[in-house]
Design a protein that fits this description.
The chain is built from eleven helices and seven strands. The chain folds into two domains: 154 residues, TIM Barrel (Alpha-Beta Barrel); 93 residues, no CATH class. By secondary structure, it is of the alpha/beta class. It has a seven-stranded parallel sheet. Helix 2 runs parallel beside helix 3.
Length: 283
Amino acid sequence: GVHGLWVMGTSAEFASFDQQERRAAVETAVTCAAGRVPVIANISDAATRLAIRHGLEAQAAGADAVAATPPYYYPHSQDELLRHYREIRHAVDLPLFIYNIPQTVRVRVELSTARTLASEGTAGGIKDSQNDLEWFRQLTLYVREARLDFACFAGTRYLIDAAMLAGAAGAIPSIANAFPDLCVEVYDGAAAGDYAAAARAENRIIGIERRVAALALGSRNAAVLGLLKAILRRRGVIERATLTDPLRTPTTAEAEGWLSNLEMLLATQSPLPVPSAGIVGDE
């Protein structure tokens, strides 16, 4: 099974939900996890005080840790990012993860900033979703050489095996919502030093992603999120696969056509994976 739950992330469309809805999601995850795996709650928002408010709600709901992107909308400086993370850590009595995803936030956590937050103990880990393996490897090397208690997680589905080779503690990819067993297979292979097995599983993930990339269902985000949720609905994990407006929800015909195509792809490799007890990634 999976090793943890990342709640209210990008795949959950967290920015479209209010404080009460976000707390309800964390409470549900904590209840479902029942102490079997840690629950990390994403508390990102456009201002530090709002992130702190979400963090206190997550703490009250029983989360084991929190994570935050840089504040979005304004192009903040790195000094402002340092202040943001330090104030969150001071106010919320839970381990804090940096969530580095500049392709959506439009502000990148620079390597020097991540090193500072790690070395001073403000942050206990990072989910790095920017697809920059050189950046990621430099951070893991710094953490190892400085002997810091800081966990580096890859946030990209394309580089799980490569990130493990570069020193990652694991991965938190969005595709793990729908294919947790496949992602765990990559991790287990890499953790055991069997990178050939890890690469085979990784290549199956890439094959799925290529099918998604070929779709024209509104925006790229709408296609990915809509089809992830269509898979979960097909399996009975969720009741509805509706996206929040203005993201375009795939029609029933579009979703069923894609799922049939996916099942044919997987039939040549293995049966459609049965969902694990939990999910890792952008849930």
